[in-house]
Amino acid sequence: MKQATSTVYRGQASRRTFTSEWHNLVLGFQHLLAMYSGDVLVPLLIGHYLHFSALQMTYLVSIDIFMCGVATLLQLKQTPLTGIGLPVVLGCAVQAVTPLESIGGKLGITYMYGAIIAAGIFVFLIAGFFARLKRFFPPVVTGSLITIIGFTLVPVGFQDLGGGTPTAASFGNPTNLLVGFLTIIIILVISAFARGFMKSIAILIGILVASFIAGGLGQVSLTPVSEAAWFHTPQLFFFGVPHFNLSAMITMMLVSLTTMIESTGVFFALSDITGRQLTTKDLERGYRAEGIAAVLGGLFNTFPYSTFSENVGVLKMSGVKTRRPVYYAAFLLLLLGLLPKVGALATVIPEPVLGGAMIVMFGMVGVQGVQILHKVDFTKNSNLLTASVSIGLGLGITMYPQLFQHMPTEVQIILGNGIVVTSISAVLLNLLFNHRWAREK
């Protein structure tokens, strides 16, 4: 009798484990879809700009997806040297697109990859110093930074919702608006009325259901799937052995500083969501992981990688705060990178669908920043000025990055990024008004 009871318990435990792992897999797929479009966009933009052939473009997209998986695993797993150990997904740093296009167009693609490797080594070497700046990021700074990360990305979601290209005649046509807003409605309805696991995958369901509806409206083309190869392996120096140019390397080092600042905001946002306090060592390992990922990107002829803010919204929506689903997302990225035809399936999701999902996710990130700011004592005029001026500057620069078009390129790289401007402003104003340096040990 005892043996039979024990067998039943083992069977129930086994079914629970299977169900749990299945849920984690689906949640991981949700994370993958949230970052996929933004990540694939980078190789597509750079490849088209540099006039890559179809074969080159296929490799570029495939290996980029594969390296996203590698970079994510580096960040998920804590070692004595690397890994923030938070549920993060890494992808291509979109702020690197214009500098890489400039380097590749003027000097050649091998110099582009040399600059990426140099930037990765730079990040690895300064990780310890940059992590010690943690004391300059109290809630008034991190809250302002996370708020601006979310709210400056909401317009990107609206751009995709309208069709992707604001200058196109089809931008904002009724079909795009119907599909985009329908995606938002589906996500909201599921979040309001569903329970348990179904509620945690509201974004995934919204994307899939809206994509099927968009397919019925003629907005889905399977051509990318039919044209993609079945299998592709990563190759070292596929486009040639990297070459190095001082100006190109300095440019990419400056870009890497902007991505480190943005990653810092995401790290603190996830720290707030998961309830885990980050130490200087945690941040140091996180920056090192991104540095190594960038070096690998240069060696395998892809791109620098940084933590994706999109997935903070996914984490907030799902309510699942463990790393397990993100491990599945990383392994799915590895698989899709090896199987371009399977990976191409995710590229057929219409832009209006992704735009609708992005508006929800980025809005959640922005509100996460507001929640952190709620902890700040705004009866003090110093805190009020620090947050309001910093957020105002970040929003302004995001709307008009050409404000610094007459400045040197290196200055434009730094000051043309609203997130970076908010971070610099918040840190400096907090030091000016609150004299943090005098009170920190």
Mean pLDDT: 83
Number of E-state strands: 2
Major sheet: arrangement of strands: 1-2
The assigned structural class equals: mainly alpha
Count of discrete alpha- or pi-helical segments spanning 4 or more residues = 19
Helix content: over 70%
Shape: globular
Q: In terms of per-residue confidence, which ranges show pLDDT below 50 for 5 or more consecutive residues?
A: none
Report the C-alpha radius of gyration, rounded. Answer: 22 Å
Sheet with most strands: 2 strands, antiparallel
How does this model look, in words?
The chain is mostly helical. Helices cover 73% and strands 1% of the residues. Strands 1-2 form a two-stranded antiparallel sheet. Helix 1 runs antiparallel to helix 12, helix 2 runs antiparallel to helix 11 and helix 12 crosses helix 15. The termini are far apart.
